[in-house]
Fold each of these.
Amino acid sequence: DTAVSQTPKYLVTQMGNDKSIKCEQNLGHDTMYWYKQDSKKFLKIMFSYNNKELIINETVPNRFSPKSPDKAHLNLHINSLELGDSAVYFCASSPRWGQHEHEQYFGPGTRLTVT
Amino acid sequence: AQTVTQSQPEMSVQEAETVTLSCTYDTSESDYYLFWYKQPPSRQMILVIRQEAYKQQNATENRFSVNFQKAAKSFSLKISDSQLGDAAMYFCARQDNAGNMLTFGGGTRLMVKP
């Protein structure tokens, strides 16, 4: 059983388009995250949600809009895609906000290529 | 910014030998957790080992162990009896009590020679 799943795994699109990446976790966790891994493999937090509420927004352009319809899902919508948005996007989850002893469980990543 | 630094972009080890990956970090917190994650070519992020800042004893998981030096803010990963399947990117990360988010180092690519 997949704990944290993301769809699609690969996404190729043109500049200016709008696209969404979906994330679902079946672990019963309260907290979910989006991370971006750039071409140099550097990983950086983008957003964190706890029980469907936005907790962290790390100076991400407002073209990126996360949405959490319920605590098992955290989707990422990107408007007006730019070349610099090409990256691997990881969704992750952890049991509770504020319990930093818990590891985060990562999805398989979505490789976004903007042409 | 409170950073995590991995000074070795690439490391190489002979199969069955031991290798140590370095990590230093900066934090103003007294309570935090440190993690090593492995990312093989499949891209999946896999937890290797974790260490609580309050615990003086170094964490160990089978062939993986850490050398945690809190005063020096150093957290290195030792891999013993290296195997071909250990070849991957390794990321050191810090998780603070306040933010609950992971701050990652830049990664070290480990190559294992047969």
Note: The interface with chain A takes residues 31-33, 35, 37, 39, 42-45, 47, 50, 52, 89, 91, 95-97, 99-104, 106-107 of chain B (CB under 8 Å).
Amino acid sequence: DIPMTQSPSSLSASVGDSVTITCRASQSVDRWLAWYQQRPGKAPKLLIYATSSLHTGVPSRFSGSRSGTDFTLTIRSLQPDDFATYYCQQANGFPYTFGPGTRLEIK
Amino acid sequence: EVTLVQSGAEVKKPGESLKISCQASGYGFANYWIGWVRQTPGQGLEWMGIMYPAGSTTHYSPSFQGRVTMSVDKSIGAAYLQWSSLEASDTAMYYCARREYFNTPLDPWGQGTLVTVSS
């Protein structure tokens, strides 16, 4: 297994703010890292794949980057719909492990 | 449109068996992987395993190997996840999701099937 960690586990922000969530892989996953958004009571939705590629229909306010085994998800100009839980997932080797999630709450 | 529609919520007793389904539509079912993800109440996502319908290839997470069985029916474009003997700890939401090929993410996802195991 490739354990994944995320920080912070939760954060509070206001509409219009920018936030950054970090995901760290315990070993190299190359660029094969995806980000998902999950709203309460809903299935996860793909936001970003292969570190920085935006999934179809995802606003450009979302962006992803990588430095070694550290990956970041940045959301600029937060909108009310963005308050949700975000998960990273490595897709380099089975099992495709998820991070523990970051809950983004409205301040 | 590519969609995955999962079977409805289940309430079972410990020791009972269960098979839940994931009905695919809008694409060539056999040529895309189907994965399963568990989410226990109030917790995060756990990758359970993945199956390639065309070749019946399966990859299970070590955490779930021997505890669940993935299968497909290519003739109707459906994937299944089954248990032979449920435990209370299997209480969770289970999602199916599609994967295109190696290194790609899961998309789209089914709406989830809630399984409750209680005596």
Note: Chain A touches chain B through 25 residues (CB under 8 Å).
